[in-house]
Amino acid sequence: MSDIFHEVDEDVRRDKAANLWKRYQTPVFVGAFLVVVATGVYSFYESNRLKTAEAANLRFDAAAALATDGKDAEAVAAFEALAKDSPRGYATLARMRAAEGLAKTDKAKAVAAFAAIAEDKGVDKLTQQVAKLRAGVLLLEQGDRQKMADLLGELVTANGPFRYTAQELIGLDALQDSDFDEAERAFKVILNDQEAPHAMRQRAGAYKALLDAARGSAPPPAAKEPAAPASAPAPAK
Asked: In whole angstroms, how large is the CA radius of gyration of the chain?
């Protein structure tokens, strides 16, 4: 008797399984199909991404070789072309290298190129700061103090990795301009900050010594000559 009930249970389970399969076979097939398609799409995308990256790497190496050979104009053109149609990482590096190449022949264009990278929201923050710092160095070489201060202001005030370097550049620019008060202020910021790198504090101390020597050798301001006394009025006759 128990065998009969067991067979009935087996039939019921088979019927339930068959009904479940009929009900859900379409979603199962669709899900399996989507998994296969997604896997294929991902494989295609990944393969294409790797090929694009490899091609960009070869082009970057070729442009770098031109720069190494002293063919600056050709290297700049190659880096600029690479920046237009390469993956973001290679494009950003190519823009930086193109700006470096421009710095050898046209500092104004190089400053503009670095400033454009620094303002590009699609570029990572660290690269933006490096671009600002590099533009600041070029402006220091050009003697454009106001533009350099405007460009480096954010780096000085922000708690970033280049704040001391930016402060140092501002101090050097002020020293070069014989603005001894501003130079002293900038170097003292570095000297008094215990978190500043030791080597940079040593340099700031050396710059401060140069500043003191320059200030001591500066000619004193010329003394004003006393005004001639007013002539007494002639006595009345």
From this structure: 36
**DSSP secondary structure string, 35-88?**
HHHHHHHHHHHHHHHHHHHHHHHHHHHHHHHHHHTT-HHHHHHHHHHHHHSS-H
Reported as a single tens digit per residue, the pLDDT across 138-174 is 988 887 778 888 888 778 876 778 888 888 888 888 8
Cα 116 → chain centroid: 10
Q: Which residue type occupies 55? A: A
Q: Measured at the alpha carbon of residue 91, what is the angle toward residues 89 and 95, in degrees to the nearest 5?
A: 120
Looking at residues 120-147, what average pLDDT do you find? 87
Tokens of 142: 């050009």
Q: How many CA atoms lie within 13 A of 168 on its CB side?
A: 20
Q: What is the pTM of this model?
A: 0.66
Q: What angle do CA 145, 146, 147 make, to 5 degrees?
A: 95
Where does the chain have alpha helices with state H? 2-68, 72-84, 88-102, 107-119, 125-142, 145-157, 163-176, 180-191, 198-217
Q: How far apart are the two ends of the chain, measured CA to CA in Å?
A: 163
Residue showing tokens 């072309």: 81
> Nearest CA to 91 among 101, 103, 81?
81
On whether the CB atoms of residues 162 and 155 are closer than 8 A, the answer is: yes
- What confidence tens digit (pLDDT) does each residue in 198-214 have? 998 999 999 989 888 88
